[in-house]
């Protein structure tokens, strides 16, 4: 075998050379960068060792998987227990389709995190810390003698920290969690430490319970381990030897009632410059020790397997107002922290600032579109050169600085932008013959990328919580567009935990988790969970998450079954959302995005169709996990019975109505009800055209939260022209209209800028909601034409649209490599597609001719075509299209 058949892109738990792994049986994955026709894996073997020199079949001292006959490019560790804090090395070889072995891959590594027993540090805090004074600073001097081989920091805070070493920023974190399951992060600080005195500095913030942030207590824990080249080791922990003082933040009102973060007013005179560098002799107090871990309320520390990355974005332009204020425009809405460098500050001069999404007619930064969030900042200067930098992030486009005291340039002002670290922000690409469509795709990409922080945040401006349906929508994009895995996996696991924490007796899940108000659910969110789990598995092949989520998926099914009315067979009076505006079913959100949906019925069609889909996906998951036949039969039976009841009682013979009771049904046939029926495959064959026409003729009458089901409906019924029109009409509700109104981030409601909303409602709608970015996923599926097949690992379907566009090109990442597609349509279709290693695909092309071209060879098509082309398994005529089954490689297919 050639060197190109050697495995590459080795990852452990979906990361390259990760540290801080706490999975006792990590999963190893790889790819092979070959385009050889038919190239695939028939077997694989993994070696694990304690040192690179031991990575050979005879010397591997930790584990040898042996040759495992499997086409799956992943093997789960199944060796002796792994030691906490240790580094391991691994390599893999594969056997190809001819059972010929490859060379061994280059070594990869991973490091285990700390076990509970390995924590020596104590939780500390500044005495008297409470929600009225949330910011504290901590420091500790560390003497280093000798050459450092490796240095690791293990750190956690309730709620957030910013770590520096010798004045240099190292990390911010970590994800919010309940204190009995608190996250910690492992950081490589080898290059941050030097010989002599070193200073660890931490800014700690505790904001109390809020949206996305559970109740806890203020606390910080840190453990530094330094391994020296001469074999020595030293451990530095948080204890009474740490010094602390109040941060330079002044008392201020909260930004809004949701996130419990104060307006940041910083007094630059209250903290000595260089406080986190060697040589600072300021008089601080000793830290208060709460207790050695574990201590109340922190019962357990678990490794965080997701990162937030940072970048600096400078303004694109600046305007100077008659008032003397300057307004900086960053071009688009970004989540981040404003940073202003003053070259010549005046002692005691207070600089007022405000961020915004818009500008008023007079040019002032305006906070419309930020859900009534107080977007002010203030900074009290000391004399000389200095920098203002906020602690918490917000989403904004404009930063207004009143009376800065000097002329500020764009180089002196920036946003420290934050977003979830993805493998490749350009993993998926799309370009087409329609420039508006391409702008919509870029809008969605920007929104999806920057809408993710430590979790899938509702919005970076107010509700920084992780809502289940929002997270599902965003995960659809991030897993496909960026190759993201770890954020989605972590979110699914967190919602699984919400079930066990609050809903084990009733089969539900939290609508937002973690959260300060504890248990809160929405029926459709619970019912959507099996679909999220299945979608994630289809893209990632992550069987461990499938296994973890399965008991909760079963509980969700049972929850739905308990609400099935014995007379109609419909899900009726479903419990959930008690006391709120989404009791018994949310339909869509905000309320204007329901477009008149008739909710006044005990059996809502949307709830029932989510139930149909939940049973269907539960059955898929049970099959994938090879669960007992009785369990699979249970899901199939419930799916068939509910689908039958929906058609019998909620379909009027032509369309689906919005709901019913025991005696009558609604006379309103919403787009929601009919699009969901198409998307879930519930429409009778005789009504598909009627229902589809109704959905298409309705235009856009579903909100950004539920619009994926509308896009799924148009995909299922092969209406690409209607799909393109929906996405690109600037005069109708949708993404093009957001662009037409100057939006740079997807919105919570299509009507954020509409005159039909009251001024209060407009100000209470977010113009930075990434849940609307799902359009990117469906552009790749409908218009580029790439889909993952159900029930088939590494099986794709490539189907370019037969209308709506003249040309498109792009790529879609998969676990085995990227699918690349280029197609254009003149007199016929000219398609070039590249299928990655270890993958097969059915390429579907419309053709009215009995001949097509495959790699410049003309092939006669009929229902039993036999071909003798390398990589082509079959050519099939389905009546309205030709299906070409191919394996790895690049193929050009042309039709008349």
From TrEMBL:
One GO molecular-function entry: alpha-L-rhamnosidase activity
A Pfam family matched in the record: Bac_rhamnosid6H
Domain Alpha-L-rhamnosidase C-terminal: 794-851
Signal peptide positions on this chain: none
GO biological process assignments: carbohydrate metabolic process
EC id: 3.2.1.40
Reaction it catalyzes: Hydrolysis of terminal non-reducing alpha-L-rhamnose residues in alpha-L-rhamnosides
Hydrolase in keyword set: yes
SUPFAM superfamilies in the record: Six-hairpin glycosidases
Name of the protein described by the UniProt record: alpha-L-rhamnosidase
Organism expressing this protein natively: Halocatena pleomorpha
